[in-house]
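Below: protein 1.
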Amino acid sequence: IRNIRNFEKFFTEFDSDNRISIMADSQTKLYHRCFIMFGPVLRMVRSAAATLQHDILFYRPKKVSELPGVIYELVTSDANNQFYTLGLAHSVETDESFDVYQDFLQYVFDHAPFLADE
């Protein structure tokens, strides 16, 4: 968990609009999941005059030993049909989980409420 905490520090210092949340067991310190949102894309979406569409994708890494769990990607597209990664989530759970998906979207809307208005 120390390495991901170091990444968290660097990521948030690099761009003040970057967002990251790391969830770990408070007693064992074992990592469970994280949510990441990219500041430059958030700024673009916030200022865009175009209609934006959002979609979420699921990935299961081919080599489970390297990264067990599921990766969730929230993408947005603009009027020119350009796609941008708005956020990523990772969970150590081995199957797609509606709870993780729901928690991820809640995190996104909590940190970028202007997206919920679209």
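Below: protein 2.
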Amino acid sequence: APQFDSHDACTVLQMRGGILLCGRQSGVVSFYDVTGPRNATAAHIGDLQTNARTITSMDVHRTRDWVAVAGEDCRVSIIRYPRLRIEKPFTLFSVCVNSPIPGVIFTEYTDFDPSFALLLYELPYVPI
């Protein structure tokens, strides 16, 4: 697992089903299992580099183990995140658009085709 120094802060947090997702300044998403005892340290599950710059937004799908990740580098990705330490996160979809992305959200909760909306800098509309 990558080692992070104190300058690689979490910029976005999401949580679902006992899995904490931390989007970092480095463009890495870290996954932690927080289902242990209240005073226990969260168990690090894994990391995935999704962006080249700071992650600005994440949204967790309500019914699937998917997270939409967006960042300053104009990239949006849909990744499947692990629920167990033996699983690794992996990218389902990734594309770069022509603007930094301060916001991403799932818009429909189907089990096979993720639909999402993006908030883009410098554009007068929200692409869907």
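DSSP finds no helices and ten strands in the chain.
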